Amino acid sequence: MRILVTGGAGYIGSVLVPTLLEHGHAVTVLDNFARGTTELAACCRYEGFEPVRGDARDTRILDALVPKADVIIPLAALVGAPLCKEDPIAAETLNRDAVISLVQRVSRSQMMVYPTTNSGYGIGQPGVHCTEESPLNPISLYGVTKMAAETAVLGDAGGVSLRLATVFGMSPRMRLDLLVNDFTWRAVTDRAVLIFEGHFKRNYIHVRDVVKGFEHAISQYHEMQGQAYNLGLSSANLSKLELCAKIAEQVPGFTYVEAAIGEDPDKRNYIVSNDKVERTGWRPDWTLERGIAELIRGYKTIRNSRYANV
Q: Which partner from 90, 201, 232, 308 sits 20 to 30 angstroms from 121, CA to CA?
């Protein structure tokens, strides 16, 4: 298939795009490539790879690229509550408006698979799993903009929305700020972490299982279209303290302490059911334990000391 991926040089895209090319698809990536790094360099060996430097909000570029695609995957976004708070105008124009622009250009003969976030559930009820029928209650601009874009994708485009759990794992465009990645980094480098509100729970998913989710949604598109699906590890609805205990099993000497005072500005706290997507035949390949082991190996290759003397 001919697949258009916006933001394809990011954390998820730099794993997704090589996989799609490897499986025989032609992939066009629209990205500003602002980092000037080589996350997609290995993709250039594929004749079906077409990088396009540009902004996902530029409607002139969308007019040229969208009609050529069989599948559209909008990854371009400001991801995470802190980044959206820092630049609210970009968050609204990129996370919401750029996706709506794509929806306006997509025909019903084309497929759209959209990644949103299960942080739209905000604060759940203790012990009650959030399902796709649970009320949405986003508590950040990030969640609000992503849910607005999802509404357009499901309604006007008849697409598929994947409500991603908190993603973890190694990627060519690495992110250390994601919770599992962050706590594992601190365990490996500092051997300690101070936790605020350690009882807060979330669901998690490996980045390669996210890619598997995209491929599954494309292959099962006509059965899944027009609906949202939670995509996460059913075995990993864990609190921060439980997550640290998992990391400590693989990092000897790792100490984690819950702060007696103070609070986490990120108030998300929920557990999620992934039964709906599992009923369509999707299953994850990566356990949390396997992902932590991967991160430990990966962190032996990374030094985050750009502004340090050593």
A: 90
